Every structure is written in C-alpha cells, then in structure tokens.
Amino acid sequence: MAWLLLALFCAPAWAAAPAPASEILAGNRAAEKGDLDKAIKYFSAAIESGKLSKENLAIAYNNRGNAWDDKGDLARALADYDQAIKTNPSFAEAYYNRALARHRLGRFQEDLRDYDRLLTLDPYLTSGYFNRSFAWAALGRYDKAV
C-alpha cells in the first residue's frame, strides 16, 4: 500500500517533467510557429538529456540545425547537421539539409558528396536529384546538371 501512495504522490512530478522525445515535438511545434529561439531551447534540452535513442538524437540535432538555418546561422546549422550524421550515418534528411546549407555557402563539391550519399540512402527522393543539378551547374558542369 505504501508504494501505491508513493506512486500517487510522485506521479504529478513525473508527468510535469517532459520526456526528451516530447521536447523534440515541442521544438517542432515552436519552429512551425516561427519561435526559433524556443525551438532551439527544446531541441537543446532533448540533446543534453542523454536519454534519446540514437535515431531521436540525430533527429534533434537535425531539427535544431534547421532552426539555426532558418535564423541564418549556417555555421551552427552545419555543426548540427554534422552531428546528426555522425550520430546516425543513415539519416538521409540530415545529408539533404547539410547539402542545402553548403550550397548557400558556395561549397559545391561538398554539396555534391552529400547529395550522392543522400541518393544512395534514398534513391527515390527526386528533390535530391533536382537540387544536385544546381550544384553541377554552379561548377559549370551543365552536362551533368541535365
């Protein structure tokens, strides 16, 4: 009976503390509303919790990278995309996002490597082929861009 009372009294405290995965969802909602600073705080809290699976940790890094990217901080965005890829090398979305950021920085060779890896992981992602053509065009390789 004592354990039941303990559970009843402690349950509200457990419920009040958001689980790391729910912090990712809260970060996504904040980002959708345009509150990028709040989104970054949620993603950072999830990352720093040490309680995420490898897959969810990569998602948290990727999504925080997207928030940094939306704020115009490409250096921080790239660092988070790098970490997402290091955490889960099969996470195609992180390669896609890193390629987009690298393209905006004029890093077209690296951009191409990311698109090549992305399309190895997900050969049906047509936007990867489409965006890769812009990197080829930027390098003057119009024969590969079409």
Description:
- The longest helix is centred in the middle third of the chain and has 17 residues.
- The chain is mainly α and 146 residues long.
- The protein is elongated, with a radius of gyration of 19 Å.
How would you briefly describe this protein structure?
The chain is mostly helical and 146 residues long. It is built from 9 helices and no strands.
- The amount of beta strand, in percent, is under 5%
**What form results from the Cα inertia axes?**
elongated
What's the helix-strand series?
HHHHHHHHH
In round numbers, the mean pLDDT is: 89
Poorly predicted residue ranges:
1-17
Structural class comes to: mainly alpha
Estimate percent helicity.
Answer: over 70%
Instruction: Report the C-alpha radius of gyration, rounded.
Output: 19 Å
Largest sheet: none
Q: What is the helix tally?
A: 9
Would you count the extended β strands for me?
0
Q: Termini distance? A: 72 Å
Which helices and strands, and how do they pair?
Layout (H helix, E strand, L loop, with lengths): L1 H15 L3 H13 L3 H13 L5 H17 L3 H14 L4 H13 L3 H14 L4 H13 L3 H4 L1
List key phrases describing it.
disordered N terminus; 146 residues; mainly alpha
